[in-house]
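Quick one: structure tokens for this chain, please?
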Amino acid sequence: MAARLESLLYRVFRFNPAITLLELRTRLRGQRPYGMLFFFAFIGTFTLILAFLIIEYPRQYHSMGPSQEGSQVLVALFIVQLTLVLLIMPAYGASTIAMERDRKTLELVQTSLLSATDIVSGKLMSVAAFGMILLMANLPVAAWCLMLGGVNLQQLYYGYTYLVVMTIAVTALGLLISALFQRTITAVVVTYGVLIACFAGLPLVGLVLLETIFVASSRQPQLGPGGSTTLVLLLGAVVGAITYMALRGVTRRYRKLNKSLIGIASPAVLAIAAGGVVILGAVGIISSSSSWNWHALLVAHPYVGMFAMVHPEMAEDIISSSGVKSAISPSTAIWLIDSGIGLLMAALLWFLAISAFRWKSRHS
């Protein structure tokens, strides 16, 4: 089965999964992975019991109906799992390449026929797959929330798919930093420093800057004719750049497409098209609102987004306060936005990790 999968991946994607299979087998040996599974399941069960007791006792101090109990418990469970992902998975990603440099085993891997894309992608897939296994440990605990009422399968799907996206994104971040630094401890410390800056510092700084700019100008920003379109243009440029780098990385793996006109021009054309679609969509959505509330940008924060996509009331409040008219449900809109941002960041970090690994290999 593994040989067939390896042959299929190489034929279709030109990807050799040898590193993925090797690291998964190595990672699942011993008692440590099963201890981590038990830890995830224990924390999830403890969170479920604690949240249920807080809601149920004493009931006379709150007016929460039975239909809301399952939703509140599920929100608490997903928030705790997101915290575990942000605390544990970056360390696994940051130690993959740097640890091999410490053990002097990376040179053996580089002497094989595996390319830099095979090595980096294989390590990313192995760590992400291990993270998904850890998340599956709490599936029975999350399913128990269905018995409490007020929870449907759509909320479970949104929550777990977003957890998977965040697992891939933070693992790719750790992998990028691991490819740049020589020592494992340095890579781990820098990875957690970047995470703290991104999830705590940047949202606060961004909101303060936006508030200062728009209070000083004594007007609300408008996107459209006569308004500022800088943010939308920047978003389109970022999406276009990520699309071009991802497609160009794919075409380079095929010798016939690498130097042909189609292989060079098609990524650029598709990148321009993707950026244009994002710009037109953003302008159309935001310009349809007469009073855009920039505090709605907080929905891009992982904790706010997770809370909103599994809590329909909060999602509806965020969408209504932003003034945007959405044709789909608020929870679905927030799930699409946050998952899209996470996937774009994961793709960009993956491409940068491959480039950093190549650069480090040439200059080491």
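Residues 2-220+344-362 form one domain.
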